[in-house]
Specification:
heterodimer, A: about 80 residues, alpha+beta, SH3 type barrels, six-stranded antiparallel β-sheet, about 15% helix, globular, B: about 650 residues, alpha/beta, two-stranded antiparallel sheet, 27 helices, about 60% helix, about 10% strand, elongated
């Protein structure tokens, strides 16, 4: 199955997280993402996009809604489901 | 935090640090949980809202402490720790929570005898992660499953016995706003305190990604066992967000919400404001009647009442603003506003969250600067603090109104638009543009750095807890009066002295003030302000207005010997000024007022929030220079165009 970046999903699309912190060398960042619920195996759904260019995104993961920018969302790899 | 810092914070076993054990019998219970889990509402429910609010020493993280007596009569000390997503702390708030829980710094807070882990029952998938982390600390722990009513409405059916057995700690369902479960929670707390002793927690080590993965798969395992029926997703929040976060409707709603807020601040606050003003006038005239003429009466009436009164009149506006902000925060809208504005704020290098403090600064920069605490990166936070006073605050309004009424003809421009209103709007716009430009400049020079990362929770919408909003509002109002009162009081007394002494000689022709210290200072300053079109009288009036902008009107009135500024006599002062000043001077003073930093409270709060005198100094110097430059250009250009 082809993996995508979380930021590449359309609004309403869901993906199973396969990797967190792709292309980021910051351990802090990976940990923050994980503590907020971005964990391998969890389902992430892009729910909303901000106006004027669609950045940031609102993503639902593990029952919570989180806002992050597309660039940061792209450090998370998903398989669309 | 790196390893050396961790080593420096070597844990001290409780017994070795007796500094804080004033009353050994009184046990401390700390509330810990994720942000937005209803922790503060639960704290209010437990303590009955009687909390001591303050700051942790050295940092500007709010600290709440209260007392409660259990049904069996034991008194407990309850501490509300700042919300955190994990013990791998990132923001100042989270660092406090971690340090208290590990007992790193006993001077900050006595390490707790028991923890109440608070979890949002509608978001257990994430909330239980922190609960497992807290359990590992080894302190007696009780779990409060908060917002249980909402979870049940969504169809959640949990086997609490299984949950409690798997977690290894007692579990109590609670609904904080209705005080449900509080008694049961306290009885579990008491049982634990009687049967278990806090053991020293292990030294804090940064968690590895593997540990976090392990922790959450444990959460998943426990929830699989304990869930009889899982809840349906948040239908309401999704429906509301489809409109509120919609590219077009969302922007419109944002515009309307804040339009309404300004409307409220400027119009609804007028009635209580007028009432307070009239009370102050009554008080002052009573003083004049009761007291014998002399320096004491003058000090009390012209110094203390005039000075402190000029601040107190802003209390209705400030309270209304805070009511709006607390309401919007409590119902979950604020992070959405930040979400919608992130793109625009990002254009000038600001964090989306900077929108909220800048917005508050339209009323007053003091709460605005306090609201920057949610911005974790220091560079982003400092940029926001430094530009916040450029947003047009309510204290500039009286000065704008008076000068515009005196110097700008009220001709119709286009349809219902009139020139005076347009100039007022232009001044507001000028302030916003100046703030954004300075932010851009700061971010591309001194505070250069990567674009701030945004990772922010958009919490489920809920009805604000009336008690929490009321308590928050009262606390803010109290702090405003106390802080502003002390600063303004001392300045008023000093100013009264400077403009009253020395007394004019016998048979003096000029107004008394020109013989006083203030008069001498004004004449000394005249060469400095002449290039920007100000005369010595403006210079004198400007000095006290560095303490608080709105003082300008009163001091101009004094200097121009119109006497005491009374309601309805603005025209009188305006007429005097109109005869004495050129239009170029008036325009120059307006530009000065847009850009200058004339507020001791702002400088004081900046000092407090940044913990250094450097940033208030930077703020004062850059804003004053900017104001001088702006006024210089305005005056010279206007004179060139023949308005001098």
């Amino acid at each position: 199955m082809k993996t995508l970046k979380l930021g590449q999903l359309q609004v309403g699309q869901r993906g199973r997280i396969v990797r967190v912190g792709v292309g980021s060398d910051s351990a802090d960042w990976v940990q923050r993402l994980m503590a907020m619920g971005f964990l391998e195996g969890s389902i992430a759904e892009v729910v909303h996009e901000a106006p004027f260019g669609g950045d940031p995104l609102a993503v639902r993961v593990r029952g919570t809604l989180l806002a992050l920018r597309r660039q940061e969302a792209n450090t998370i790899e998903v398989i669309p489901v | 935090m790196n390893e050396t810092e961790v080593l420096q914070k070597v844990f001290l076993p409780e017994g070795l640090n007796p500094t804080r054990s004033k009353s050994p019998a009184l046990k401390t219970v700390a509330l810990a949980g994720n942000p937005n889990c209803g922790k503060t509402a639960l704290f209010n429910a437990i303590t009955g809202g009687k909390a001591k609010v303050g700051n942790y020493p050295g940092v500007t993280v709010e600290r709440k402490e209260g007392r409660v007596r259990t049904s069996s009569g034991t008194e407990l000390r309850i501490v509300d720790l700042p919300g955190t997503y994990s013990l791998d702390a990132k923001t100042p708030d989270e660092l406090i929570t971690r340090d208290v829980l590990f007992g790193f710094d006993q001077t900050v807070e006595k390490s707790p005898d028991l923890l109440i882990a608070v979890a949002d029952a509608t978001q257990l998938e994430r909330n239980l992660g922190l609960v497992l982390e807290l359990r590992k600390l080894g302190r007696p722990t009780v779990l409060a499953l908060n917002m249980m009513d909402i979870a049940k409405q969504r169809g959640l059916d949990l086997d609490l016995d299984v949950l409690s057995k798997e977690l290894g700690i007692p579990v109590v369902p609670t609904v904080a706003p209705r005080q449900e479960g509080v008694v049961e929670l306290l009885s579990e707390v008491e049982k634990k305190l009687n049967n278990e002793v806090a053991v020293a927690p292990s030294v804090w080590i940064q968690t590895s990604p593997e540990e976090i993965r392990g922790r959450f798969s444990e959460v998943d395992r426990i929830l699989r066992l304990a869930t009889r029926k899982s809840s349906s997703p948040t239908i309401w929040t999704d429906r509301v967000d489809r409109v509120v976060l919609h590219p077009l409707w969302g922007s419109l709603i944002l515009f309307c919400v804040f339009g309404l807020m300004f409307q409220a601040i400027f119009n609804w606050a007028e009635i209580p404001k007028d009432w307070i003003e009239s009370q102050i006038r009554v008080l002052s005239s009573v003083l004049y009647e009761v007291m014998a003429p002399g320096p004491l009466r003058s000090l009390l009436a012209d110094g203390v009442i005039a000075g402190v009164g000029s601040v107190i009149v802003f209390l209705p506006q400030i309270s209304l603003l805070f009511l709006f902000i607390l309401f919007l925060e409590d119902c979950g809208y604020m992070p959405r506003a930040a979400f919608l504005m992130d793109k625009w704020m990002g254009k000038v290098g600001l964090h989306g969250r900077a929108f909220i403090p800048l917005l508050s600064s339209f009323a007053c920069a003091v709460p605005g600067i306090m609201a920057t605490r949610t911005i974790e990166n220091r560079r982003d936070r400092l940029t926001t603090i430094l530009v916040a006073p450029l947003m047009t605050c309510s204290a500039r309004l009286p000065v704008y109104s008076m000068l515009i009424a005196a110097f700008i003809p009220n001709r119709a421009v286009l349809g219902p638009l009139r020139l005076q209103g347009l100039v007022m709007f232009g001044l507001y716009l000028f302030g916003v543009l100046a703030a954004l430009l300075v932010a851009l400049l700061l971010r591309s020079t001194f505070f250069r750095g990567p674009k701030p990362i945004l990772l922010m929770e958009l919490p489920t919408y809920k009805w604000p807890d009336a008690k929490s909003v009321a308590l928050g509002l009262f606390e803010r109002a109290r702090l405003f009066v106390a802080r502003a009162g002390t600063v303004i009081l001392s300045v008023s007394i000093l100013l009264w002295f400077l403009s009253t002494y020395p007394k004019p000689p016998q048979g003096a022709m000029e107004p008394a003030i020109s013989y006083s210290f203030a008069g001498k200072i004004g004449k000394g300053l005249e060469p400095l302000v002449r290039p920007i079109g100000f005369n010595w009288k403006i210079a004198v009036a400007l000095i006290p207005s560095f303490a608080a902008r709105e003082v300008m009107i009163g001091s101009l009135a004094t200097v121009y010997a119109v006497g005491e500024q009374k309601e309805g006599s603005t025209e009188l002062l305006g007429d005097r000024l109109f005869r004495d000043w050129s239009l170029a001077t008036a325009l120059s003073l307006l530009v000065w007022y847009v850009l200058a930093c004339q507020c001791l409270s702002t400088l004081a709060v900046t000092r407090r929030e940044t913990n250094s005198w450097r940033w208030p100094a930077v703020m004062l110097i850059y804003m004053t220079s900017l104001a001088y430059l702006g006024s210089f250009l305005t005056y010279q250009l206007a004179s060139y165009l023949g308005l001098g």
